[in-house]
Design goal:
By secondary structure, this protein is of the alpha/beta class. It contains 8 helices and 9 strands. The protein has a single domain, classed as Alpha/Beta hydrolase fold, catalytic domain (Rossmann fold, 3-Layer(aba) Sandwich). The protein has a 7-stranded mixed beta sheet with strand order 1-3-2-4-5-8-9, sandwiched between helices. A two-stranded antiparallel sheet has the order 6-7. Strand 2, helix 2 and strand 3 form a beta-alpha-beta unit.
């Protein structure tokens, strides 16, 4: 089944549930982000961003945090499971809801600035100075653009990238019609962007039944290909997906 086919079914339910939280709809009111600790003035504010915090819950200690860019279905089951598994391994995770964020059209530069804010804030709040970046579907497609536009000091903090269901084009505006094959708007080729990332380890995860995945065609020395059974939802084996991401994070030596 094609990527669009599975997204139509899986994402439509999340879209309908989220309508009440999307700007412009009656009764729309997004609950504020719950901060883990009181915020100092020097810590960037992210209250304007649609984020979900998953603090570390396990006994293991890590100096790595994760930022997870969701698919266009929003903060869905796949994202929650991955966030929970990382948190259990001592890696706190902040989920960035792509459907709600890209409801307003963005630019690669503006979205990258917002990623830098997220990294700065939660690096301070959670006392983590290194970051693993994860993108699923829509979030995977835009992620290389954001990484390449981070300030050098922020880019240096990124120790791993996991792209789940990565395709050859990104869009920076969410359009529900894209689920049904209608025009999704301006498309940005992803190959030139991922080719620019040479220092950071990248794991590219894809379903063997996906017809539009880009992962098998990536040949960078820093890229690891990770095929999974199934299509765009990996047969629901989200625990195994989390294990791939954890291996990326675990390969990073802890700082003393």
């Amino acid at each position: 089944m094609s990527r669009n086919g599975v997204r139509r079914i899986a994402a439509l339910g999340g879209f309908l549930l989220a309508l009440g939280a999307v700007p412009g709809h009656a009764g729309a009111q997004r609950p504020p982000v719950r901060h883990a600790v009181p915020v100092r003035a020097a810590v960037p504010d992210v209250a304007d961003l649609p984020l979900d915090e998953v603090p570390a819950t396990g006994s293991r200690r890590s100096d790595v945090m994760a930022v997870l860019l969701t698919g266009d279905g929003g903060w869905a089951h796949i994202d929650r499971v991955i966030g929970e598994r990382l948190a259990q391994a001592g890696i706190p995770t902040v989920g960035w809801n792509s459907m709600r964020y890209y409801w307003t059209e963005r630019t690669p530069e503006g979205a990258s600035r917002d990623l830098a804010r997220i990294m700065a804030r939660y690096g301070t709040v959670w006392n983590r100075d290194r970051v693993v970046l994860i993108g699923y579907s829509f979030g995977a497609d835009v992620l290389p653009f954001l990484v390449n536009r981070l300030p050098p000091e922020m880019q240096a903090r990124v120790v791993g990238i996991s792209l789940l269901g990565f395709s050859d084009n990104a869009v920076f505006k969410f359009r529900p019609g894209g689920w049904f094959g209608f025009d999704a708007g301006t498309r940005y080729p992803t190959i030139p962007e991922i080719a620019r990332i040479t220092r950071i380890p990248v794991s590219c995860v894809y379903g063997t039944q996906e017809r539009d995945t880009l992962c098998p065609s990536l040949h960078g020395r820093n890229v690891t290909e990770a095929p999974f059974p199934g299509a765009h939802h990996f047969d629901g084996d989200y625990d195994a997906l989390a294990a791939v991401i954890l291996r990326t994070a675990s390969a990073v030596p802890a700082r003393s």
